[in-house]
Amino acid sequence: MTSPHPFQLAARAALSIALVLAACGNDPSTKPAARGGTDAVAAMVTKGAVEGVPVIQAKGRATKGQEVSITGRIGGSEEPFASDRAVFTVVDASLKSCTDMDDPDHCATPWDYCCEDRQSLKMATATVEIAGADGRPLPVAVRGTAGLDPLARVTVTGTVIDCNDRGLLVVRATRIAVH
Asked: Which residues of 140-149 are buried (b: 16+ CB within 10 A; e: fewer)?
């Protein structure tokens, strides 16, 4: 039995490495954002009150590219968190959730602010995204990570990436404080 030629060994090794790298490149669980996504989110979240302006006030004067710190409560719909991306909504603290009403047990999802007027809610809600190095929202759900839960009071610091006079405000977070 003869040994393979050194060139054949090198070719086999290169092919093996290429196949492994190709397989890893196609598996989302091996990508850094997917692997460490919630860890990256948890690293930007702190505990304690931080100064920020109410969501409604920020919406009245925010401009694209501006650094802002907004304060509110996570909510605004039955599911304020995206299920597959690091995105959630924050509602101005001046609006009342169902837990703030006289009968807090009348609603199964008090963070949806169902007792508030829909237009008022729209004008008092901002979208928060936590992006990776590529500038896109991390491909992870963040509900429950480091205290990010419905009705949690938060101050989000970041850059305005979109806004308009019809009620849109999107902030790419660089820091989140959970009060």
From this structure: bbbeebbbbb
The answer to whether residue 2 sits within a structural domain is: no
Checking phi first, is residue 10 left (phi over 0); if not, alpha (psi -120 to 50) or beta? alpha
User: What total of structural domains would you count in the chain?
Assistant: 1
**Residues 111-156: tens digit of each pLDDT:** 999 989 999 999 999 999 999 999 999 999 999 999 999 999 999 9
Q: How far apart are CA 148 and CA 74, in angstroms?
A: 8
Rounded CA-CA distance 125/156 in Å is 13
| pTM for the predicted model, two decimal places | 0.79
* CATH number, residue 79: 2.40.50.200
pLDDT tens for 94-114 read 999 988 877 667 788 999 999
CA gap 83, 85 in Å, rounded:
6
CA 45-148-134 angle, to 5 degrees, is: 60
In a domain, 10, yes or no: no
User: 76 in a domain, yes or no?
Assistant: yes
| 106 found inside a domain | yes
Range of the domain at 160: 31-178
